[in-house]
Design a protein that fits this description.
about 500 residues; alpha+beta; three-stranded antiparallel β-sheet; 14 strands; about 15% strand; elongated; disordered N terminus
Length: about 500
């Protein structure tokens, strides 16, 4: 809805020779909004829709509410925990030519220092409170934490882990922002004041020694209102959550009213209104005795003037209402209903595959937006501490969120290897290109990971005639018409028997 604004609208000029009376401009109030006053629809009309308002609540600042919801509400706990757990579940794979034993050393150091667990903790508190940070602990740097972190000062074996604090429990951004445009944290606080039970007193820490975790990104002024943190994930789910809880409790209460029993007794109103205490107590005792008889013997004793009736409530349609509200909660949480509520897909031909695929896409987006900046800052520090240097080709990629089954891997390996073999035998690509293709699919299939750069360098870079050279490429001869599957690899034929069995 746009605000009303005056707009000068000059009258069109008349043709030449035509006398004009007034050439002044007029002020016209324009509003680019729909309104039907007769139907009470649109802007400014007295209707229920126009009475709705969206006040600024900033629930993120309500620390007690965030704690109460996280501790007592299972849906809130899943909203906060599940997405970070899926982001870190399959972790990452190093790229480049790092030796397998060096990769094992780096992974072992990560386990010993609890890197993944601490990052997961920081992501959870960032989502719950809107902000959290992890202090990078390096031995020998206790007295220089207010200075920028220099790679030259990181000694082998000096990385000691991470200390995670949330925005309400010990870390406060200070005045002064990062002014270097080349810094990934340009425009964010340069220094942080930290006080925690694990740290003696209060210290100043440079931003290069911290890993930041935030919730939802906010526009400029709101980011300043939150002291350069984000918004809690609960903020945009809270209204939908209240609808779901109220609906659930109302459905539960209806269970008690599923059968309404009506007892019509002569003079009951007179006894309650005008009778003395003994008469009223006698009436209560009579009703209580009737309840006992009915509960124990399914028998109800009435006077011949009395009447008893039962009104049964129908629950038809309630499940549809409840499921629609569940879908709203799941949509606000960016999670499928099957993932958030742990329910299996319902309906004809329902598999939930499309919902899960959308969810996996969301996880991959969040890995790039929130997890990659953390690892970009941390991995060089881990390498310096473990190896004393940063590999020149240090890079990584996130492993797929959805893991392929062994059957799927075998099928992919068979089809892809057969395709590479066919293209090589057709004389389209060289031996070197074929080896590169085989190694590139090792992340998916688990095969061909032992093809090294040295093997590729030594491979023939010329394109062979159709049908020649496949034995040299793989180290054994194959039937050109056979599938190159994992069983073929296990029963490889030596090179000195080019004709096969």
């Amino acid at each position: 809805m746009s605000k009303k604004h005056p707009r000068q609208q000059p009258r069109p000029r008349p043709p030449k020779g035509v006398n004009t009376i007034d050439t002044k401009t007029v002020d016209v109030q324009t509003v680019d909004a729909f309104m039907n006053s007769m139907a009470r629809m649109g802007y400014g009309t007295p209707s229920h829709n126009e009475a709705a308002e969206y006040p600024m609540t900033r629930l993120t600042k309500n620390y007690q509410l965030m704690n109460s919801l996280y501790r007592s509400h299972w849906i809130v706990r899943r909203i906060i925990d599940v997405i970070p757990e899926d982001m870190c579940k399959n972790w990452y794979s190093l790229l480049g030519q790092m030796r397998p034993e060096d990769v094992d050393r780096l992974q072992r150091m990560e386990r010993q220092t609890g890197v993944r667990r601490k990052i997961l903790e920081g992501m959870k508190w960032g989502r719950l409170y809107g902000g959290a940070a992890a202090i990078i602990m390096i031995a020998g740097h206790e007295g220089i934490l207010s200075q920028p972190l220099s790679y030259d000062m990181i000694m082998p074996g000096s990385f000691k882990g991470l200390i995670v604090v949330d925005r309400w429990s010990g870390i406060y951004p200070q005045d002064g922002l990062v002014t270097d445009p080349s810094d990934p944290e340009f425009g964010l606080p340069e220094m942080y004041q930290v006080s925690s039970e694990t740290i003696q007193g209060t210290i100043q820490i440079h931003h290069s020694r911290l890993l930041r975790f935030i919730g939802r990104e906010l526009p400029f002024w709101e980011r300043q209102a939150e002291v350069y943190w984000g918004a809690s994930e609960i903020e945009h789910v809270y209204d939908e959550l209240k609808k779901r809880d109220n609906t659930s409790w109302n459905i539960a209460n209806l269970v008690f009213a599923a059968n309404l029993r009506v007892l019509k007794m002569a003079d009951a109103a007179t006894i309650l209104a005008m009778g003395n205490a003994k008469a009223q107590q006698d009436l209560y005792n009579t009703i209580q005795s009737q309840n006992w008889l009915m509960n124990n013997f399914s028998m109800y004793v009435l006077d011949k003037e009395d009447d008893f009736d039962t009104k049964q409530y129908s629950f038809g349609g309630l499940s549809d209402v409840y499921e629609n509200i569940m879908m709203d909660v799941a949509g606000a949480a960016e999670m499928p209903v099957t993932k958030l509520f742990g329910r299996s897909p319902a309906g004809m031909n329902a598999t939930g595959e499309s919902d899960l695929q959308n969810y996996y896409d969301t996880i991959e987006e969040k890995q790039e937006a929130y997890l990659r900046p953390v690892l970009d800052k941390l991995l060089p520090i881990l390498c310096l501490s473990e190896f004393g240097e940063i590999p020149s080709d240090l890079d990584y990629k996130f492993n797929p969120v959805k893991r392929s089954t062994e059957t799927e891997k075998a099928e992919i390996a068979s089809k892809t290897s057969t395709t590479v073999t066919a293209v090589f035998n057709s004389g389209i690509v060289s031996q070197k290109t074929a080896l590169k293709e085989l190694r590139q699919m090792s992340d998916v299939t688990g095969l061909w990971s032992n093809i090294t750069d040295e093997d590729i360098i030594k491979a023939d870079d010329t394109v062979n005639l159709p049908g020649e050279g496949i034995g040299d490429m793989l180290g054994f001869a194959l039937d050109p018409n056979a599938n190159l599957s994992m069983s073929n690899h296990a029963e490889a034929i030596p090179k000195d028997n080019p004709n096969g069995p």
